[in-house]
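Reopening this ticket.

The earlier resolution said the output was attached, but the attachment link was broken on my side. Pasting everything inline this time so it's all in one place.
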Amino acid sequence: MTSLGILQRSLQHEGDYLSKLGEAGSTSGFNVYRFSPDQQFRNSLLGMKYDPKTKKWLETNFPIPDFIYDRCFHNGFITEMEASFIKWLKSDSNATFLGHGLPGKWAIYKQLKQKPFINRHLPQTIKLQPATSASVISDLLTKHEKVVLKPVVGSQGNGLMLLTRNQNQVDVQINHNGNVLHHTYDTTSSFLKMMRRIQNQRDYIAQEWLSLLDQNNRPFDRRVVMKKTSIKNWKEIGRATRVGSSDSFVSNLHSGGTIQSDHKLSIPETFLRAADQKINLLSRCIAANLERTFPPLFELGLDFGIDRSGKVWLLEANSKPGHKAIQSYDSLHFIPFQYCLSLMNEKKGVIES
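Inline output:
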C-alpha cells in the first residue's frame, strides 16, 4: 500500500487537520504516518500511524514513506540534528517530498520583483545588514515615520515589528508568540543598539509601512491558499479576510485576528470586488513564477493587503499555509493524495489532462 508521511516538529500540532488527512488517506488507499525530524538516519522511523478503525493515531515504527508532506514550522530556528535528518530524507532516501518549500522572504522578494506586473504590487523592501542597518532604519523612519521589520525566516507573524518615530523617540511594537509587546526608546541610538542585538540572532528585512486598515481602523489582509492538484495545475482552495483588533498592527490568526465573512467587512464593496479581480491574476502569476524558480512546490499561502486607495499589495508568500480559513473546501483533505497519485502517474509515463 502507498504511504504518506507527515513531517512535523511537534506531533501535537494541527491535530484536527491531520486527523482528517488520515481519514482521507485511508479512504484513498494510503497508509498515513506522522513523524518528527529529531531522529537518526535509519530505514525505520518512529512516529504514529493513523488507524481508520479507531480513528486514532497509534505510536509505531514504520519504513520511510513513499511520499512526505512537510508541515514543519521552524520560525528561523532548527537544530543541527533536524536539519541533517531532513537533508538526508530529501537527498538520500527514496521518499518523494510533495514540496521542498520556499527560501526566506528576501530571496522571494528579489525573485518576484523581476516580474514587472508583480513588482508594482510589492512594498519597498530592504535587506538589513549589521554594518548599515542603523543608517537604513534612520533614513526610512525620517521618510515614512513608520517602518515594518520582518524576520527573513519565520511564520505566524512571530518577530514582526512596527517602528514609529515620535520626535526623538522610537515606539516599537513586537509581535511575540501571539502577543504584541510595546517598548519606547528615548533616543534613536538606544533603539539601534537593541536592533544590533536582535540582528545577531536572526536576519531582518525592512519594509515601508502601508496603511492597510479597514474603516474601523483595524488591520486586515486577504489570505489566498493555493495547492497543486496535479503536476501541472495550481488551484485556489480558499480565500478569506483576516481582521485584527484596532489596538494591534497584525491580523494573523495566531495573534488574535479573526476571519470575517465578506458581508461583515468594513471595506467598500466596490474596493473588495476590484481587489479580488487583481488578486485572481496576481495569485496565478506568483504561483507560476515561484514554481519555476523554487521547485518543487505543493501549496502556497499568499497574503494581500488593500490600501485605502484600493491598491493591492503582496505582503507575504509562504509554502506552509494554515488551513483555518479554508476548512469549508469539500475535498481539502483529499488533495495531498490526489497529488501523490499525479506524481505516481508521471513516473509511469501516464499523460494527465
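Reporter confirms the inline version is readable. The CA atoms of residues 244 and 250 lie 6 Å apart. Helices lie at 15-27, 80-92, 105-112, 116-119, 133-144, 188-199, 269-293, 335-348.
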